[in-house]
Specification:
Layout (H helix, E strand, L loop, with lengths): L1 H19 L25 E2 L5 E2 L2 H6 L6
Antiparallel strand pairs: 1-2
Length: 68
């Protein structure tokens, strides 16, 4: 019985630690976004990861933010 409890604790710890590395959240602002500053004038309105609304994805990227 004691071995089963130890095994279960080990297994639970292993699964918990394995799940820690699976967080795929992108940083906001994302410094890897490269942009040439030439955007179109269309303005459908998009929400960026910082919660701010930009005219389009291009303008959000110019400031380094990805669109949700």
């Amino acid at each position: 019985m004691k071995n089963i409890i130890i095994y279960c604790l080990f297994l639970a710890t292993f699964v918990g630690l394995a799940a820690c590395g699976t967080n795929n959240v992108k940083p906001c602002p994302d410094k890897s976004i490269k942009h040439n500053n030439a955007c179109t004038t269309d303005c459908p309105g998009v929400k960026a990861c910082n919660g701010k609304t930009y005219c389009n994805e291009c303008e959000a990227a110019r400031d380094g933010f990805w669109v949700e």
